[in-house]
Design brief:
- This protein is mostly beta strands.
- The protein has one domain (20-116).
- It has one helix and 16 strands.
- It has one helix at 113-117, and strands spanning 10-14, 19-21, 24-26, 29-32, 35-37, 40-42, 45-48, 53-55, 58-59, 62-65, 68-70, 73-81, 86-88, 91-98, 103-105, 108-110.
- The longest helix has 5 residues, at 113-117.
Length: 131
């Protein structure tokens, strides 16, 4: 994994071929090009590359999906489903962009997701945070 100190820049990368069996929680941006079987929480943007896959719930500020997610997604900022991406599950987001060719199979609610949870995604809830 790679870490940077500049806000808004990519902080952690899970590379192609890497597999994580467990939850991931980071304060900064995260890119997943491998596979995660577990929940993913980020205080910033999550980018799932074309070959990336997440089987679990996702709580992030913003989401750019190029690969696959099977689980519930809470993204109070902006969610982008790129062409050839797949999202199967419930989505709660502030803004939604779906490119032609993307697959979305589930329920979508567009609202102020922070108001629903009472906290910003990624806010501490007793789990270990990678800095």
């Amino acid at each position: 994994m790679k870490s940077t100190d500049k806000p808004g820049e990519l902080g952690t990368i899970l590379g192609k071929g890497a597999v994580v069996d467990g939850n991931i929680k980071v304060e900064h941006s995260l890119r997943v090009d491998g596979k995660v079987v577990g929940d993913v929480t980020s205080g910033d943007t999550l980018i799932v590359g074309a070959e990336g896959e997440i089987k679990g719930n996702v709580k992030v500020k913003n989401l750019v999906l190029g690969g696959r997610i099977n689980g519930s997604v809470l993204s109070p900022g902006r969610t982008v489903l790129e062409a050839r991406s797949e999202l199967r599950g419930e989505l709660k987001t502030g803004k939604l962009v779906i490119d032609e060719g993307a697959i979305f199979d589930g329920k979508c609610s567009m609202s102020d997701a922070k108001a629903e949870t009472g906290r910003t995604p990624g806010e501490a809830d007793g789990e270990t945070i990678i800095k």
